[in-house]
Specification:
About 15% of the residues lie in helices and about 30% in strands. By secondary structure, the protein is α+β, with helices and mostly antiparallel strands. The chain starts with 18 loop residues before the first strand and ends in a 6-residue tail after the last helix.
């Protein structure tokens, strides 16, 4: 199993390449006593920016439980992956683990 116990990321080949339009407008006026008024406006419109998403979300009911009991997610529980996954992976390196990690649908990743 490739990269089990480590985080996963992927890039979609059909995603559009990001680009931006930059526009600026300005004017200057000479004022008395050798002074200059300089006013500028600049705007940048960006399109097709990359965004990240999670493929391993908590359920809404689990989030509500965490709000009702703030210590629910942080409590340490026995790690079922300890001794099963390599100790070089972050999830297989400790005999205990945060409960939040095991609540995720794909907790091994």
């Amino acid at each position: 199993m490739t990269a089990i116990g480590n985080s996963q990321s992927l890039d979609f080949p059909q995603r559009k390449i990001p680009y931006s339009h930059i526009t600026s407008l300005g004017f200057q006026r000479e004022l008395p006593d050798q002074m200059t008024l300089d006013v500028r406006f600049s705007v940048n419109f960006a399109y097709n920016l990359r965004v990240s998403t999670t493929l391993n979300p908590l359920l809404f009911s689990q989030l509500q439980q965490g709000i009702a009991n703030p210590n629910l997610f942080d409590r340490q529980v026995p790690n079922p992956y300890y001794g099963v996954l390599p100790k070089t992976s972050w999830i297989g390196s400790s005999p205990t683990i945060k409960a939040l990690t095991l609540m995720l649908p794909y907790s091994a990743f």
